[in-house]
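Here comes an entry:

___
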Amino acid sequence: MERYYFDHNATTPVSPEVMEAFAGALAEVYGNASSVHRIGQAARQKLEEARAQVAALLNCERKEIVFVSGGTEADNLAVLGVVRHNRQARRHVITTAIEHPAVLGACAQLEQEGTAEVTRVQPDAGGVVDPDEIRRALRPDTVLISVMHTNNELGTVQPLEAIAAIAREAGVLLHSDGVQAAGKVPVDVKALGVDLYSITGHKIYAPKGVGALYVRSGVSLAPILHGGHHERDRRPGTENVPGAVALGRAAAWATEHVAAESARLSVLRDRLERGILDRVPGVRVNGDGAPRTANTCNLRFDGVDGEAMVIALDLKGFAVSAGSACSSGATEPSHVLIGIGLTPQEARSSLRFSLGRANTAAQVDALVEAIVAAAAHLRRLSPAYSHA
């Protein structure tokens, strides 16, 4: 049986050009980048070349890139690092109710340890946060705003430029989780106006276990790990040079191809949505009408259990998702879908389809056929669906 992958927001396969760069670095660049001898300095050179490639993807200075282990660490370093570095007596953080658990968990940790109070702004029904809601949430003791660039479940794009203008006016730092945006939409951290921006390798065809945090020059962070003086005292630990090389190569590919690939995936995404909506009754697009990344489609199937649909499609050779992979196995429905006003039952009836480089129109058409059959079968078995 052929298998087709439609879960790129969970993770991406390592691309051929990244695999080549990664394997070469593993085999040849084995030195410690902090060592002064020639072998160590060869590793340092590769590390800095990769840093420049990541900086080019985000349009920032090389020195503003901090290599970390992935998106979760990048988010934690941004949120915890900014707030803990600030020494004022009262500290307040603004975020949204639909952030990735890496941001929401870091905010919950600040509350638990009594370091800061947190306001979680609700999005509208399309999954977009109103900048005026951010403005209304500001307090004199607000030290950080954290709003994701694009949502991992819906693909909705947040109005970061408007939020950044509000943050600048108030003298508050702005962090954005860009894990699902980098490589899918053009990212210019200067134009966006963000002070910190998180990315990870495994969403842009690099291996798992490497990511980066953009930290605007002049922004200070308290480290969340303690040890040596690596990464300009912002992230101790011997650098993962092969991982950084892989991330740099993936960033270089994305810098060159993001516009064309986004246009291609937009056509495929629309083809998928039209095919399903035309042939399966009782289907709605979650986040419909909002600006979305080109590769992401989140659909609600009335009377169908999302997990059952995932299994049915997997048996037919298609990998899709019922929500965020970081929340798989959770008994609670998606906090993102609940956050845009869906009932728990509606949230559990939703599926996410996220396309990538290997997907084709033929694969999309085959997926539509599989969904038509699976939805009809599951609805025949479902007491929650009206067959009238």
Summary: Residues 16-253 form a domain with the Aspartate Aminotransferase; domain 2 fold (CATH 3.40.640.10). The CA atoms of residues 295 and 355 lie 5 Å apart.
